[in-house]
Design goal:
mainly beta
Length: about 325
């Protein structure tokens, strides 16, 4: 289906952020963190509806002069769409096939301090929304935007005059063991719709290296069994020997982790060592373009992780994680 006609997207944001002295804030050069509430007009309320987003927000400052600072802001969270796709009442919204989607915003800009409490911000930002293939269609939203905002600071103390202190960390190699469950709907980006959800089971094992208090690298071997691949093999009559192994995948994943207090942001990229069903989908069903060929071999993962034990205080900790597994940037399933 064609993308629905639309005008320019507009948004209104209200955020509240704070700073307090901690080792995590010291190691990240004292960022401001808090929450952001946003209201979105996608340019076509009849077909695309409106959006309401709620995100965590963290902003980093680099002082250029007494009044001017360079800023980078990251906002992970969720967005609610008032008019998602429906196979009877709204077939034109191919952007969002579910009421709730992940919403990520990344910005870079300038902060100009007009007074001790009032600042002006000018930002260039990119917003991305996706339901992780849990509800089709899922073309998703990619919106570059310009933002102008006014910031009022309740606390007028100068935190940049304090002396920085660096934390210590365990430099020994660690072991990573993880089991996870994934879910998605079978099909392409826009069809079939109104289908059922299928489950995947994953096991990962590998090593980790802490390079700084704020960063960790991992290398893992992931094994995955996918019910969606099983469906493809059975409906297309691709299975020749063992349905379980031909519906499975083995992946080598290189990962990076930003660690902030109990939380961390995970980004992975890797290589499909064994994934016969994806190879058949790309080779026999989809268009033979460069992006599809690459996605056959290059998986990815973007996730948020929470450690039960503070990573600064212990190198051993259990965790829970929520993320989106992808194939060369195309959402595959929520994990």
């Amino acid at each position: 289906p064609d993308f629905p006609a639309r005008k320019a997207q507009t948004a209104l944001l209200i955020s509240y952020s704070h700073w307090r002295r901690s080792q995590a804030n010291e190691d990240f050069h004292r960022p401001e963190s808090g929450v952001c509430l946003s209201f979105h007009n996608f340019g076509n309320s009849n077909d695309l509806g409106y959006g309401v987003g709620l995100q965590y927000q963290i902003t980093f400052h680099q002082k250029l002069s007494e009044r001017l600072s360079l800023t980078e802001c990251f906002r992970p969270g969720l967005i609610y769409n008032t008019k998602p796709y429906h196979y009877l009442s709204n077939t034109k919204n191919i952007v969002s096939g579910a009421p709730f989607s992940a919403l990520i915003g990344a910005s870079m800009g300038l902060n100009y301090k007009m007074t001790s409490s009032l600042s002006l911000n000018l930002e260039a930002t990119l917003w991305h929304a996706s339901n992780g293939h849990t509800g089709l269609p899922n073309v998703g939203m990619n919106s570059p935007m310009g933002m102008l905002s006014v910031q009022y600071r309740f606390d007028k103390s100068k935190i940049d005059t304090l002396k920085f202190t660096r934390g210590s960390f365990d430099k020994k190699m660690g072991i990573v063991v993880m089991g996870s469950i994934g879910v998605n709907q079978a099909g392409g980006t826009t069809r079939p719709t109104n289908g059922q959800e299928y489950v995947k089971g994953l096991v990962s094992i590998g090593g980790s290296w802490r390079t700084r208090t704020t960063q960790r690298w991992t290398l893992t071997l992931d094994a995955c069994y996918d019910q969606t691949y099983r469906l493809w093999n059975e409906t297309q009559e691709w299975t020749s020997k063992n349905a379980f192994t031909e519906s499975s995948a083995i992946i080598l994943m290189l990962g990076h982790e930003w660690i902030y207090q109990h939380w961390s942001l995970i980004s992975n990229g890797g290589l499909n060592l064994y994934n016969p069903t994806l190879g058949k989908i790309v080779g026999r069903v989809e268009e033979p373009n460069i992006a599809n060929v690459i996605k056959r071999y290059v998986p990815g993962r973007f996730a948020v992780r929470y450690y039960f034990t503070h990573p600064w205080k212990s190198s051993r900790s259990g965790f829970v994680q929520l993320g989106i597994k992808s194939n060369f940037g195309q959402a595959d399933f929520v994990e």
